[in-house]
Write a structure and sequence with these properties.
The protein has 9 helices and 23 strands. It is of the alpha+beta class and 524 residues long. Strands 1, 3, 4, 5, 7, 15 and 16 form a 7-stranded antiparallel sheet that branches. Strands 8-14-10-11-12-13-9 form a 7-stranded mixed sheet, with no helix packed on it. Strands 17, 18, 19 and 20 form a 4-stranded mixed sheet that branches. Helix 2 crosses helix 3. It is globular.
Length: 524
């Protein structure tokens, strides 16, 4: 064979990569779109250097590479989210937090309706021994001062500082002996609680041991559900709400539990005959509850002034004689994460100071009242078994007030069966340390046209910083934390607190609360 002058080579065989070596070029740390795209290009260049070399944007091969990178980035994000939402400390979605807490027997609280003391005054003294306010007269509608929309309040009777249980026809009976005056014309043992009253009736025809009733309207206000069951044989009457049916002491306890879904729809659960009494088949029920809740129900005194006629024909005036306070939105994720582990840890008993603190901070009164609390023991000799629970009542998301006598009594009565026999609990008023602020914010001159918008953003940041849930008893005000919060706004160059020279420190029974504040804009 004659030599042609051309030398042939098997160099293509030399650049082929064995299959067992290809995984060395895989970058498992790539998760985002650009990283996946660039790593795949590097992989192709290393493993298939002669098969594909056209890495221009318009090439079909680049389109396929980017499609694979797109799907890889989507799957990577979903994997990260699943891992994040699987743990309580990292979960951010409210529904996921609620479901995680249900695994340990803790329920997130629904919205809370504002409550106010009420007075009913007849135009003429009653001549009957008892007057009755019918169920259709118990709901009063006004315009909300917050948004101007309709705002409903439901009238309740108060007995020994607590909301009275419902009657079969849901009317309110006022005895002459309960009136404020000998003239039998004024009753102040009443409360107006925000929310529209809903009444549902039905019959238990389920053969299941664990009977349930799904309430039709929502959002259901926390602690507003009342149940009256008529089943004869002396077992009819009002049933008692509990946080969990597992708290039942026996088969004869007439109790029920309320659970919420993602939309704050509620389901009423009854006992199974072992943990709580199971309603008889064909027995009838009447369930009353309120829907609404939130801060829009916090109103001034004497805003409600309406005429109500009793069943006996007496005409009278109903007024709210105190501020309506305590209205709150559904429990926040941050609050639930903070106190749920303590609730699970104490297991329906109060032993440590941590137990007392978490229980008091999670307690909801019959009128929907909630509070801020801190427990402490006394240092005096022989008083170590006395637990002082320093308590303040929430008026709004940013305001606290001295707890009412009825709320203190409710909390103390709830603590009694859970404490140790050798421990005594005492409710003590906490102290509010009010604070005025003058804040100066530096912004660019080009943003002058947005001055009012920026002021509003800064105000919201300050109110969020001083939210009741963010401050506990004994917590100091660190000015750098406040300015750092304001500085998180993209429009803000720098922020200072002009009327304070140093951080504010408080005692263990004091809590800082924002009173008044002003925001000044400085252009740079």
């Amino acid at each position: 064979m004659a030599f042609t002058g051309n030398a042939s080579s098997d160099f293509m065989k030399l650049v082929e990569l064995p299959d067992n070596k290809k995984d060395q070029f895989i970058d498992y740390a790539a998760t985002d779109f650009l990283s996946l795209r660039n790593r795949m290009i590097d992989y192709i260049k290393a493993v298939y250097p002669l098969d594909y070399q056209n890495f221009v944007e318009s090439d079909l091969g680049m389109m396929l590479i980017e499609l694979v990178a797109y799907m890889g980035a989507v799957n990577s994000l979903k994997t990260d989210i699943l891992a994040q939402e699987a743990y309580l400390t990292t979960a951010k979605n409210r529904n996921n937090v609620r479901k995680l807490l249900e695994l340990i027997g803790v329920s997130m609280k629904g919205p809370i309706g504002a409550a106010a003391n009420a007075r009913y005054t007849l135009n003429t003294p009653a001549t009957a021994s008892q007057i009755t306010i019918p169920v259709d007269k118990r709901v009063v509608t006004i315009a909300s001062p917050e948004d101007g929309g309709p705002l409903n309040f439901t009238l309740y009777k108060v007995v020994n500082g607590q909301v009275d249980t419902v009657s079969p026809d849901n009317s309110i009976a006022l005895n002459v002996s309960e009136s404020d005056s000998s003239a039998s014309s004024v009753w102040s043992n009443l409360a107006l609680i925000e929310g529209s009253l809903v009444i549902e009736t039905g019959t238990f025809n389920q053969v299941q041991t664990l009977k349930t009733v799904n309430l039709s309207q929502f959002p259901v206000i926390q602690n507003s559900v009342q149940v009256f069951i008529n089943q004869g044989l002396g077992t009819s009457g009002a049933w008692r709400a509990v946080d969990s049916l597992y708290f039942a002491s026996g088969a004869s306890d007439k109790i029920f539990q309320v659970t919420y879904d993602d939309d704050l729809r509620a389901e009423v659960l009854f006992g199974d005959g072992i943990l709580g009494y199971s309603p008889d088949i064909n027995s009838t029920y009447t369930i009353t509850y309120r829907v609404g809740g939130g801060t829009r129900g916090n109103i001034r005194s004497n805003v409600i002034n309406t005429q109500i006629t009793t069943d006996e024909g007496f005409l009278g005036t109903l007024k709210n004689i105190s501020l309506a306070t305590g209205g709150q939105d559904a429990e926040t994720i941050e609050h639930a994460k903070k106190y749920a582990p303590y609730t699970f840890k104490r297991q329906d008993r109060l032993v440590t100071l941590e137990d007392f603190t978490s229980y008091a901070n999670s307690f909801v009164g019959t009128t929907g009242s909630t509070g801020k609390a801190r427990a402490a023991t006394r240092t005096a000799y022989g008083s170590a078994n006395i637990v002082d629970v320093y308590l303040l009542q929430k008026a709004s998301n940013t305001q606290l007030q001295q707890a009412t006598i009825s709320f203190k009594a409710e909390l103390l009565n709830a603590i009694e069966p859970l404490r140790l026999m050798n421990t005594k609990a005492v409710i003590v008023d906490g102290l509010i340390r009010t604070l005025d602020l003058i804040v100066s914010v530096r912004i660019d001159r080009e943003l002058k046209v947005k001055e009012e918008i920026i002021k509003g953003l800064v105000r919201n940041k300050i109110l969020e910083f001083f939210n009741v849930d963010n401050f506990d008893f004994g917590k100091s005000l660190v000015l750098s934390e406040l300015t750092r919060t304001i500085f998180s706004l993209n429009e803000v160059r720098f922020a200072t607190v002009d009327n304070l020279d140093s951080d504010i420190y408080v005692e263990m029974n004091e809590i800082i609360q924002l009173n008044n504040f002003a925001v000044n804009i400085v252009y740079v």
